[in-house]
Design goal:
By secondary structure, the protein is of the alpha/beta class. The protein has a domain of about 280 residues. It is about 35% helix and about 25% strand. Strand 4 and strand 5 form a beta hairpin. The protein starts with a strand and ends in a 17-residue tail after the last helix.
Length: about 425
């Protein structure tokens, strides 16, 4: 396997607005730790993958498409061979559009595009032969923040390590599902949060001091044990994730079956589109939400009124969308399936795929964009921020109940395309009817 890796710093100026919390006072007051974009280029038997992972809250779809156009022109890479993803730190610059949670920073995005191109160029031109190994550990750190009947967590910590012939590591991909919100809304310093502490903690334990990509799983409902904690606690949690895979990685042996395959598909997901009367009714109900007012005060009122005005204006022109594209980006390394999704996905989703396919599956959240929360049917019945209020901050309609289940069906089909079965044939997946 041919592997190229690189890392470039993407830390913004210290006085930027930070993205992720409406409750935060802006702007930032300094830098707690540096942000990075980390690139991996993999090629084997005519298959290629260029993947850049960033210490950011997410990437606006326009950023992704602009970079893919550049990669096609520069390197001849098809769109379906290029993935951009983010850790989802809530202490970085504004690279997605969220109302009252930091202004989208066009100047920073221009700087970011240059740095992404630099990272890609370095990774694709500094390659060498490598082998890969994989391990899976367990860590009961993330908690289901909703605390409702459908509560679910994912304790799996996965790592894929790329090694030189001498046994030293060039790069490691870590996957764990937990929202990087440990520093909380009180924090006003730039930081990569928990992933930014996991990466150096793991690199220091492995020979070769590899570049470490700490990716987020299906964490739409999962938080760290607490928020607004001090940096030392964030570092301790980051080290826990690193420790879960560091030892096993050093003992791991190459898999019996290698091989790389990259597949992708787009699944239109229906929106809960409302007419003008419905928009007004939803807005009026939202303005009676005393809990949201207590948390966000006047900012919440502005969010609701801006949402109402924008969607009513669109409805008058007949321009409100009825669906949004969910992009599935599948990476098969031997029997392992990594699945990029451009959304905030609930943790049940990954377990559905694991149960139906009987193979190691790890979700890469916030990949190739971020269009908001994708929640199981049970969450709609229970209510909560993810299904009742989050779409107001994202500025559009929420997804219809059943959208996550529809994405699951698409992901199951993609998995069957991507991988050779472990034993016999993969049975047609049963839809997750319980949720």
């Amino acid at each position: 396997m041919i592997l190229g890796v690189s890392q470039v710093e993407i830390t913004p100026q210290p006085d930027v607005e930070l993205s992720g919390f409406a409750a935060r006072v802006q702007p930032a007051l300094g830098i707690l730790d540096r942000l990075f974009a980390k690139a991996i280029y993999v090629a084997e038997n005519g298959e290629e993958l260029l993947w850049i992972h960033c210490d950011l809250i997410g990437l606006d779809r326009d950023i992704v498409m602009a970079f893919r156009r550049w990669a096609r022109e520069k390197f001849g890479l098809a769109e379906g061979r290029v993935m951009l993803s983010a850790t989802h730190t809530h202490s970085g610059p504004c690279t997605i559009h969220l109302e009252e949670a930091g202004l989208y920073d066009a100047e920073y995005v221009e700087f970011l595009q240059k740095r992404l191109r630099e990272a890609a160029g370095k990774a694709m031109t500094r390659t060498e032969t490598s082998e890969w190994v994989s391990v899976e550990g367990k860590l009961e750190l993330a908690v289901d923040r909703r605390k409702m009947a459908s509560s679910h967590t994912d304790s799996r910590v996965a790592a894929i390590g790329f090694r030189r012939a001498d046994g030293t590591f060039r790069a490691v991909i870590v996957n764990y599902a937990m929202h990087p919100v440990a520093l909380g809304s009180n924090n006003r310093r730039i930081s990569a949060d928990v992933p930014g502490q996991t990466a150096p903690a793991l690199a220091q334990q492995l020979p070769g001091r590899p570049i470490v990509l700490v990716t987020n799983g299906a964490c739409g409902n999962l938080n760290p044990p607490a928020e607004n904690v001090p940096p030392l606690q964030v570092a301790a949690w980051g080290k826990q994730i690193a420790d879960a895979v560091a030892g096993p990685l050093q003992k791991a042996t190459p898999p019996p079956r290698s091989g790389l395959r990259v597949v992708s598909s787009v699944i239109p997901l229906p929106l809960d589109t409302l007419d003008i009367a419905g928009i007004n009714a939803f807005a009026e109900k939202a303005l009676q939400d005393t809990k949201s007012f207590a948390q966000w005060s006047g900012k919440y009122r502005r969010v609701v009124e801006r949402w109402r005005a924008t969607l009513i204006a669109n409805a008058a022109k007949g321009s409100n969308p009825t669906d949004r594209d969910g992009e599935l980006f599948g990476i098969c390394l031997g029997d392992i399936f990594l699945l990029g999704v451009n959304a905030e996905v609930f943790s049940l989703f990954t377990d559905w795929l694991r149960k139906s396919s009987q193979r190691p599956v790890y979700l890469i959240g916030y990949a190739n964009g971020d269009m908001g929360y994708l929640s199981p049917r049970a969450a709609y019945a229970e209510g909560g921020y993810e299904v009742d209020a989050a779409h107001l901050f994202y500025g559009g309609f929420r997804f219809k109940p059943g959208s996550l289940e529809k994405l699951y069906n698409g992901a199951s089909a993609l998995l069957e395309q991507c991988a050779v079965p472990l034993q016999g044939q993969i049975a047609p997946p049963a839809p997750p009817s319980l949720y």
